[in-house]
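Example 3.2
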Amino acid sequence: MKRFFTLEYWQDDGWLVGRLKEVPGVFSQGKTLEELKENIADAYHMMLAEHEADEKREGAKCTEVGVEV
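Structure, written as C-alpha coordinates:
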Protein backbone atom coordinates (compact mmCIF):
# COMPACT_ATOMS: atom_id res chain seq x y z
CA MET A 1 0.00 0.00 0.00
CA LYS A 2 1.26 3.50 -0.78
CA ARG A 3 0.34 6.54 1.31
CA PHE A 4 0.91 10.09 0.19
CA PHE A 5 2.17 12.92 2.40
CA THR A 6 2.95 16.58 1.86
CA LEU A 7 6.70 17.19 1.54
CA GLU A 8 7.52 20.77 2.52
CA TYR A 9 11.08 21.64 1.46
CA TRP A 10 13.47 24.57 1.28
CA GLN A 11 17.04 25.41 0.29
CA ASP A 12 19.68 25.55 3.06
CA ASP A 13 23.43 25.89 2.35
CA GLY A 14 23.20 24.09 -1.00
CA TRP A 15 20.95 21.32 0.31
CA LEU A 16 17.24 20.75 -0.04
CA VAL A 17 15.86 20.17 3.45
CA GLY A 18 12.36 18.88 3.97
CA ARG A 19 9.77 17.53 6.34
CA LEU A 20 6.57 15.54 6.09
CA LYS A 21 3.88 17.96 7.23
CA GLU A 22 1.51 15.21 8.39
CA VAL A 23 4.17 13.28 10.36
CA PRO A 24 5.87 15.36 13.09
CA GLY A 25 9.59 14.74 13.47
CA VAL A 26 10.28 13.30 10.01
CA PHE A 27 12.94 15.51 8.40
CA SER A 28 15.69 14.82 5.86
CA GLN A 29 17.86 16.45 3.21
CA GLY A 30 19.27 15.82 -0.26
CA LYS A 31 21.25 17.49 -3.01
CA THR A 32 18.35 17.05 -5.46
CA LEU A 33 14.60 16.80 -5.05
CA GLU A 34 14.71 13.11 -6.02
CA GLU A 35 17.41 12.42 -3.41
CA LEU A 36 15.38 14.30 -0.80
CA LYS A 37 12.28 12.23 -1.65
CA GLU A 38 14.27 8.99 -1.25
CA ASN A 39 15.83 10.16 2.02
CA ILE A 40 12.53 11.37 3.50
CA ALA A 41 10.97 7.97 2.67
CA ASP A 42 13.88 6.27 4.49
CA ALA A 43 13.42 8.59 7.48
CA TYR A 44 9.70 7.74 7.57
CA HIS A 45 10.41 4.00 7.49
CA MET A 46 12.99 4.34 10.29
CA MET A 47 10.44 6.23 12.38
CA LEU A 48 7.88 3.45 11.81
CA ALA A 49 10.38 0.75 12.76
CA GLU A 50 11.24 2.62 15.96
CA HIS A 51 7.55 3.08 16.75
CA GLU A 52 6.86 -0.64 16.23
CA ALA A 53 9.73 -1.53 18.57
CA ASP A 54 8.24 0.80 21.21
CA GLU A 55 4.87 -0.95 20.92
CA LYS A 56 6.43 -4.29 21.89
CA ARG A 57 7.45 -3.27 25.42
CA GLU A 58 6.66 -6.11 27.76
CA GLY A 59 4.08 -5.21 30.36
CA ALA A 60 3.16 -1.93 28.68
CA LYS A 61 -0.47 -0.83 28.88
CA CYS A 62 -2.45 1.59 26.73
CA THR A 63 -5.46 3.77 27.38
CA GLU A 64 -7.38 6.32 25.35
CA VAL A 65 -7.02 9.99 26.23
CA GLY A 66 -8.99 12.96 24.93
CA VAL A 67 -7.10 16.10 23.90
CA GLU A 68 -8.84 19.40 23.17
CA VAL A 69 -7.81 20.75 19.75
